[in-house]
Amino acid sequence: MKIMHVDASAKRERSNSRALSRYFLERLREDGVDIEVDYLDVTVDTPPHVDEAFAIATYTLPHARTPAMKATLAVSDALCKRLLEADALVFAMPMYNWSMPSAFKAFIDSITRAGVTYVNTEDGRIEGQLVRQKVLFITSRGADLRAGSPYASMDALTPALRAAFGFIGVAAPSFVDAQPLQFADQEARLEALERARTELAAVAANWANQAKLEPASTVESNNNVMA
Question: What is the pTM of this model?
Answer without folding.
Answer: 0.92
